Amino acid sequence: MKKIEAVIRKSKFAEVKEALHDVEVNFFSYWDVTGVGNEKEGHVYRGISYSTSEIQRRFLSIVVNDNFVQKTIDAILKSAATDNVGDGKIFILPVEEAYRIRTGEKGGESLN
Fold first, then answer.
1. Are residues 33 and 57 in contact, defined by beta-carbon separation less than 8 angstroms?
2. Helix (H), strand (E) at residue 73
3. Ordered per-residue pLDDT tens for the chain, 112 residues
4. Contacts of 112 (CB under 8 A, 6+ apart)
5. Which of 13, 14, 33, 60 satisfies CB 3.0 to 4.6 Å to 6 for a cystine?
6. Residue 85 gets which letter from DSSP?
7. Domain count within the chain
8. Backbone dihedral region of 24: left (phi > 0), alpha (psi from -120 to 50 degrees) or beta?
9. CATH number for the domain including 19?
């Protein structure tokens, strides 16, 4: 099992959620976060300068069986990309064990 953490643009969340459902990743947690990025310059829109170094993002936490890792990553990459600086990051971490609280199931079966 792997834990996939993704930091994406809030504006792309609906597309990412749909793409994850399309590859049968139907359970994940998410929350709004603010981060600091590499971009040092701001953007000017209608004469107003906006800082892009501190941007609102959405953080996704997804645990999947090993056979779902690549399709989950591909779904996020395809649906979250705008080809602009600040599209986000994906991190992959090992998961030692998982339990379903209701039934006591453990391992990969607890994710179904």
1. yes
2. helix 69-80
3. 999 999 999 999 999 999 999 999 999 999 999 877 666 556 666 676 666 566 789 999 999 999 999 999 999 999 999 998 889 999 999 999 999 999 999 999 999 8
4. none
5. 60
6. T
7. 1
8. left
9. 3.30.70.120
CA angle, corner 79, sides to 16 and 25, nearest 5?
A: 45
Residue 32's closest CA among 49, 12, 7?
7
* Beta strand segments in the chain, E: 2-9, 29-36, 43-45, 48-50, 54-64, 88-94
Tokens of 94: 């090992």
Tell me the pairing of strands 43-45 and 54-64.
Answer: unpaired
The domain of 45 spans 2-111
- Tokens of residue 14, six digits: 């609906």
The first and second tokens of residue 39, run together, are 């971009």
How far apart, in Å, are the Cα atoms of 97 and each of 12, 28, 49, 57, 65? 30, 16, 47, 28, 11
pLDDT value of residue 43:
63
